[in-house]
Amino acid sequence: MGKRDDLIAKYADDLKNKCGMQADIDLLTKVTIGCGPSIYNADASTVSGGDQAELDTVKNNFLIKKLGLSESDGLDAAIAGVIDTYGKSNRNKYRAVFYYMLVKHYKKESVYN
């Protein structure tokens, strides 16, 4: 297995053990690939739930630009829901897992097909 495969296995484990979700490995792989090289950078591979600027970036660059959602789709509430599901006390919120949960929340799997 390559480095990306190892990370996808780690993300699937996070989904199962920290979020109580069974991962769709095919979709998780596509979301991970969509994150690009950021998954290999310690800082960029995680989302800081307490950093409003970072959450705004998730909202603008991922939810609005990538998934094609609008402000009226309750974006802040969805992000807050993902943070709650992942666990506020959990320091390492992996970007790929965060994005995966948002894709599932909005039923936007078609973006990755």
Helix and strand arrangement:
Elements: H1 3-17, H2 25-34, H3 52-66, H4 75-86, H5 95-105
Helix pairs in contact: 1-2, 2-5, 4-5
Describe, in plain words, how this protein is organized in 3D.
With 113 residues, the chain is mostly helical. It contains 5 helices and no strands. Helix 1 crosses helix 2 (25-34) and helix 4 packs across helix 5 (95-105). The radius of gyration is 13 Å and the shape is globular. The mean pLDDT is 95.
What percent of residues are in strands? under 5%
The figure for the number of domains is 1
Q: How can the largest sheet be summarized? A: none
Structural class: mainly alpha
- Described by the principal axes of the CA atoms, the overall outline is globular
Task: Describe the structure concisely for a colleague.
The protein is built from 5 helices and no strands. The chain is mainly α and 113 residues long.
Attribute tags:
Jann4075-like_sf, DUF2853 domain-containing protein, Recoverin, domain 1, 113 residues, DUF2853
